Automatic annotation (TrEMBL):
Residue ranges annotated for the ABC transporter domain, each copy included: 20-260
Keywords on record: ATP-binding, Nucleotide-binding, Transport
GO MF entry, a single one: ATP binding
SUPFAM superfamilies membership: P-loop containing nucleoside triphosphate hydrolases (SSF52540)
Keyword Nucleotide-binding: yes
Lineage of origin: Bacteria, Pseudomonadati, Pseudomonadota, Alphaproteobacteria, Hyphomicrobiales
Name of the protein in its database record: Urea ABC transporter ATP-binding protein UrtD
Annotated GO CC locations: plasma membrane
């Protein structure tokens, strides 16, 4: 082993115990820096809320984490050791990073339960016969996910007949079917009623008891209800980070985001 490598192996790494570690990440589109020297660290089991104006780079950050977009520079590590910049989208998904896009992608003409069944079957095919579950285990898993996402009483409804909020929860249910360690969720409560928004905050809080979550959202009532550390992005970098009260009192955050 070269001496330099030995030293690196022996040195304590600041990212070792983290779940997600971004440092110095930069991504330009036609010379425009959408992500500009971004550093962000998520601990295992943490839920983080990401806020910031349109164009701040929130979605691009998620694209980089999930392998949809390659950064020009910087480090992106999962679970301390895995360099995500060296893997493609499918590989990153199978490592346990699940993503929910803003636009629902459920099968409208299928029932809630069938949508979930398909999602569970899809995740199973990745691991093949190796982790084949018994039918009763699968039913229990389905029941657990439906309970977690407040959809048990709607299990036989067509997805098309769900409320907007319930459709979003079904998306989260299908994400949970992949059994991800980390969930990335983009604007889950846009268009939801106040009651659905509050329920979604509780739902994500429960999910975060056993998984890590990064949630992008503009709804400040929702972010407050989450009660987690907040990162405000602006021009592709972290503008402020900390408890919501501190971040929302930061004059720079007020100027670029809250004072709109
Ligand atoms: N594929 C792309 N090609 C060119 N520009 C892009 C691309 N993706 C994002 N951008 C630009 O990068 C900036 C950040 O976008 P985005 O990450 O979508 O911001 P946010 O999600 O915070 O609103 C925006 O100015 C956007 O126009
Ligand atoms: Mg976005």
């Amino acid at each position: 082993m070269a001496e330099r490598e030995r030293n690196r192996a022996a040195a304590p790494s600041p990212r070792r115990d983290t779940l997600l570690y971004l440092d110095g990440v930069t991504k330009s589109f036609d010379g425009f820096k959408a992500i500009d020297n971004l550093s962000l660290v998520l601990q295992r089991g943490e839920m983080r809320a990401i806020i910031g104006p349109n164009g701040a780079g929130k979605t691009t950050m998620m694209d980089i984490i999930t392998g949809k977009t390659r950064p020009d520079a910087g480090e992106v590590y999962f679970a301390g050791e895995t360099d995500l910049t060296r893997h493609d989208e499918a590989a990153i998904a199978s490592m346990g990073i699940g993503r929910k896009f803003q636009k629902p992608t459920v099968f409208e003409s299928h029932t809630v339960e069938d949508n979930l069944r398909l999602a569970l079957a899809g995740s199973r095919s990745v691991f093949g016969a190796l982790f084949h579950r018994r039918t009763s285990d699968e039913r229990r898993r389905r029941d657990d996910i439906l309970t977690a996402t407040r959809l048990t009483h709607r299990r036989n409804a067509r997805a098309a007949d769900l409320s907007h909020g319930q459709k979003q929860w079904l998306e989260i249910a299908m994400l949970l079917a992949q059994d991800p360690q980390l969930l990335l969720i983009d604007e889950p409560v846009a268009g939801m009623t106040d009651a659905e928004t509050e329920e979604t905050a509780r739902l994500l809080g429960e999910i975060a008891e056993t998984r890590s979550v990064v949630v992008v959202e503009h709804d400040m009532h929702f972010v407050r209800a989450l009660g987690v550390k907040v990162t405000c992005l602006h021009e592709g970098a972290v503008l402020a980070e900390g408890p919501l009260d501190a971040v929302s009192a930061d004059p720079r955050v007020v100027e670029v985001y809250l004072g709109r």
